[in-house]
Write a structure and sequence with these properties.
Elements: E1 10-13, E2 20-21, H1 23-37, H2 43-46, H3 54-58, H4 67-82, E3 87-88, H5 92-101, E4 105-109, H6 114-124, E5 130-132, H7 140-146, E6 151-154, H8 157-166, E7 169-173, H9 180-186, E8 190-192, H10 198-205
Parallel strand pairs: 1-4, 1-6, 4-5, 6-7, 7-8
Antiparallel strand pairs: 2-3
Helix pairs in contact: 1-4, 7-8
Amino acid sequence: MAHMTSPALTVGFDLDMTLIDSRPGIHACFTALSARTGTPVDADLVVTRLGPPLEQELAHWFPAEQIAEMADLYREMYPEHAITGSLAMPGAREAVAAVQAAGGRALVVTAKWEPNARLHLEHLGIKADEVVGGLWAEQKAVALREYGASVYVGDHTGDVRGARTARAYSVAVATGPCDAGELRAAGADIVLTDLTEFPAWLENHR
């Protein structure tokens, strides 16, 4: 990860269920993985608990010795099955644009494999300035600190922990598997209904 001088405002965003609704694509990819491997996977259940790394989800369905192989296979299959079916969350493009209009940089920090994260953003026209993949929960603080993010926006209690570890302001959106009460209990500084509320919040925060 290249070091850089951070601008006055850098805002980090989570990806799945924060900027994008990846449930249709992930459902399709897990269904295809199940068909290809002959291993039953409840894709309906999978998409109710998005956020943690892929390997954690695969561990529910495959023996430990197969996890690395299945993760590689899933990521290989992902572009074909998961990109076009996934949607931008309400307000996602506007939230990123609001940061940039304020003279800041929008940074995406996600547990998703970075090449696939970039495919999602490109397909949906969400123009982040930087993308860092493969980081979950407290690990996200590594990228948030590297890029000097003062705010991190996410939908999961793991995102709140990442923000707190980086000493960034934790903005939570109740659009993923964690409800507003869980997000507040985890230490979120503010909980928004969704990203449509973010530009007004950012203006007031600044």
